[in-house]
From TrEMBL:
Subunit record text: Component of the replication restart primosome.
The enzyme's E.C. designation: 5.6.2.4
Descriptive protein name: Replication restart protein PriA
Gene3D superfamilies named among the record's database cross-references: P-loop containing nucleotide triphosphate hydrolases, PriA, 3(prime) DNA-binding domain
Domain Helicase ATP-binding, residue spans: 159-325
Pfam families to which the protein is assigned, alphabetical: Helicase_C, PriA_3primeBD, PriA_C, ResIII, Zn_ribbon_PriA
Cofactor(s), names only, from the UniProt record: Zn(2+)
Gene name as annotated: priA
Family label: Belongs to the helicase family. PriA subfamily.
Functional note: Initiates the restart of stalled replication forks, which reloads the replicative helicase on sites other than the origin of replication. Recognizes and binds to abandoned replication forks and remodels them to uncover a helicase loading site. Promotes assembly of the primosome at these replication forks.
Lineage, highest ranks first: Bacteria, Pseudomonadati, Fibrobacterota, Fibrobacteria, Fibrobacterales
InterPro entries: Helicase/UvrB_N, Helicase_ATP-bd, Helicase_C-like, P-loop_NTPase, PriA, PriA_3primeBD, PriA_3primeBD_sf, PriA_C
Xref: NCBIfam families: priA (TIGR00595)
Helicase C-terminal domain: residues covered: 421-578
Organism, as annotated: Fibrobacter succinogenes (strain ATCC 19169 / S85)
Length: 672
């Protein structure tokens, strides 16, 4: 019936549907007697393609002037709630996208299989869900709450029984026991028959967090994220679809599931992973959580030792309740932080670790303790330089220097992943002689093995975590003390709790300062503070070594003192003077094309349209930080405004037109 066309005059009911990634909303006929309503999942045929799933946005009796095909309900009969529909449409509007592009992000890749599983469940009871990850030894005998934790919990529990929007920032130093407060809060929420969504920034945190909550609550925790196996994804999503899920734990995309939570917890809320990058819409999990809580009534808990400035300012202004945990739950002091000025360190050329860090690391391992070393640079060496003309070797497809990876015995582009032979001739002079300049994490791994006796190093970066389950395996083996040194990029800084870690070293701490991003200083402070917070969590004696060429940078000094309030005050003052968020809304418009002349003409045309709107301050156009990626040139425009409605009015017709505004030019929009 899906393929049949019918005279619209013979039908009494019609439906408009969202088809993932389609250019517009389409109208279909409703078969006589079919139970189709807003939110229904239906089969439709678009042009000559195979039947596909679509979501009904509206059912009406307005006869179109053209013949239509039928829409047929999916065999499962599933209907999304009005809350889900409104959420999808709000994200589309707020982030200047279309419901069809948004639906492509909201629906998981195997959604049709999940509906088939739901249909099968109606025929026979569902068996036990598969495990969400490797088993971990979790202590059931949790320590009693500290006084600070008791006070914070009492305030949160009080909010559980209220109606409407309730928002709280739980600002606790690293190791202050925020997760312990979450556990008690979820237990109290379940007593009141409330549903809880727990969000973490990284997939690697889900096994540890799920185990903690399941062990304490003695109820199943449904895990949702992209790296699960197919059976795990199906079982998790099925529990949400059939309504059996009471506690859902996941990464960013879990908030898009049809789980009508009463409480949502964003742990490490400052983390940039909570913001979608590609594809559009480029939503922020925190904004959607706030919207749903305000629209439908819910408690939002944001937890962090280093909250983002927007959140901190909202809390200081009274828009969010501010709860503070100033001390570590174990009564252990915050670690001693030492900044090492690498400009003054005399050592062998090319050696990455200072003598002080080498000695401290050796003593730590000799004492039977563990250490975390962070270097936020993948590969073995940062650049390859021609010894004849001094030219740096760039990727042919991207305007970015190639990085030598000893693991692959090749030069790699970190933007398009292209590999080049190490001995590629210099494109400028043709010379085949070269040298590597600037060490990276693979070289640091070699150095640790060379200098530290009994070092058992496990590395965690993008190159070692490509396979499904690799992150969990690495973290579990380190937690089980199979290794005594965890060496990694910024992945190692995110919320991990390793009681055996007494030493943290940060090599090349100032590498993020050169990025032209108004958040770069904030992100550097967060990285330093979060990484330092992994040391000495279970007892005294935690030490942190920060190696830098810029020891007098204010951000370094605030990190030494664990002074978030001082950092936030200084950074907020700088942002206010420059009129950056949180004192305005910043919209970043990225335009890309393979035709550089067409790109420049299009950007200039767009700029002239934007400058006609008096409520906007338009900056640019400027080349992107990496101006060419995969043979596509990129140019950016920025808008500072207090009036996002005016921005949407101008950009929505351009971004959501059925055909590209200018053929051959891609336009991306991000709201900061």
């Amino acid at each position: 019936m899906v393929k049949e066309r019918c005279n619209s005059a013979l039908l009494s009911r019609f439906c408009e549907v969202y088809i993932p990634l389609s250019p517009s909303v389409f109208t279909y006929g409703v078969p006589e007697g079919a139970d189709i309503q807003r939110g229904s999942v239906v089969w439709v045929q678009l042009a000559r393609r195979k039947p596909t799933l679509a979501l009904v946005s509206r059912v009406h009796s307005e006869k179109p002037s053209f013949d239509v095909r039928y829409a047929c309900p999916h065999e499962s009969g599933y209907v999304f709630s009005e809350r889900y529909m409104e959420s999808l449409e709000w994200v589309s509007k707020y982030y200047i996208s279309s419901p069809m592009r948004t639906l492509n992000v909201f629906w998981p890749a195997d959604f049709d299989k999940f509906l088939d599983a739901l249909l099968a469940e109606k025929s026979e009871p569902r068996g036990e869900a598969p495990s969400n990850g490797p088993e971990m030894e979790v202590c059931s005998d949790l320590p009693p709450l500290t006084g600070e934790q008791e006070t914070a919990l009492a305030s949160l529990v009080e909010d559980l029984d209220k109606d409407g929007f309730r928002g709280t920032l739980l600002h606790g130093v690293t190791g202050s026991g925020k997760t312990r407060v979450y556990q008690e809060l979820v237990r109290e929420a379940l007593k009141r028959n409330k549903r809880v969504l727990i969000l973490v920034p990284e997939i690697g945190l889900t096994p540890q967090t799920a185990s903690r909550f399941e062990d304490y609550l003695k109820v199943p925790v449904v895990v949702l994220h992209s790296a699960l196996s197919a059976p795990q994804k199906r079982a998790g999503y099925l529990a949400v679809l059939d309504g059996s899920a009471k506690v859902v734990l996941g990464t960013r995309s879990a908030i898009l599931s049809p789980f009508d939570f009463d409480v949502v917890i964003l742990d490490e809320e400052h983390d940039s992973s909570f913001k979608q990058q590609d594809p559009a819409p480029r939503y922020h999990t925190r904004d959607l959580a706030f919207h749903l809580a305000q629209k439908y009534g819910a408690l939002v808990v944001l937890g962090s030792a280093t909250p983002c400035l927007e959140t901190f300012r909202n809390a200081k202004a009274g828009n969010l309740k501010l709860l503070t945990l100033k001390n570590r739950a174990t009564a252990a002091p915050l670690p001693e932080v030492k900044v090492i000025d690498m400009g003054k360190v005399r050592q062998q050329k090319g050696v990455l670790m200072s003598p002080a860090l080498r000695e401290a690391l050796s003593d730590c391992i000799a004492g039977g303790d563990q250490a975390i070393i962070l270097m936020n640079r993948r590969g073995y060496s940062k650049i390859r330089v021609c010894t004849k003309c001094g030219e740096t070797l760039y990727c042919k497809h991207c305007h970015i220097p190639l990085v030598y990876h000893k693991q692959y015995n090749a030069l790699m582009c970190h933007y398009c992943a292209a590999l080049y032979p190490v001995d590629t001739p210099c494109p400028t002079c043709g010379a085949e002689t070269y040298e590597f300049v600037g060490g990276a994490i693979e070289k640091l791994e070699e150095e640790i093995h060379e200098w530290v006796a009994d070092a058992k190093v496990i590395r965690m970066d993008r190159d070692t975590t490509q396979n499904v389950g690799a992150v969990e395996k690495i973290l579990t083996s380190f937690r089980n003390r199979e290794y005594n040194i965890l060496l990694g990029t910024q992945m190692v800084a995110k919320g991990h709790d390793f009681p055996g870690v007494k030493l943290v070293g940060i090599v090349g701490a100032d590498s993020g300062l050169g990025i032209p991003d108004f958040r770069s200083t904030e992100r550097l402070y967060q990285l330093l503070s979060q990484t330092a917070g992994r040391a000495g969590r279970a007892g005294s004696g935690g030490r942190v070594f920060i190696q830098t060429l810029n020891p007098t940078e204010p951000v370094m000094q605030y990190a030494i003192r664990h002074d978030f309030d001082g950092f936030a005050e200084t950074e907020s003052s700088n942002r206010q003077m420059a009129f950056y968020p949180p004192f305005c809304k910043l919209v970043e418009i990225s335009c890309g094309s393979r035709d550089e002349n067409l790109l420049r003409d299009t950007v200039n045309r767009l700029e002239s349209i934007l400058r006609k709107e008096s409520s906007m301050t338009v900056l640019g156009p400027v080349d992107a930080f990496v101006p060419k990626v995969q043979n596509v040139f990129w140019v950016k425009l920025y808008i500072k405004t207090q009036n996002l409605a005016a921005v949407r009015k101008v950009l929505a017709p351009i971004l959501n037109a059925p055909k590209a505004w200018v053929a051959g030019v891609e336009i991306k929009v991000e709201l900061e």
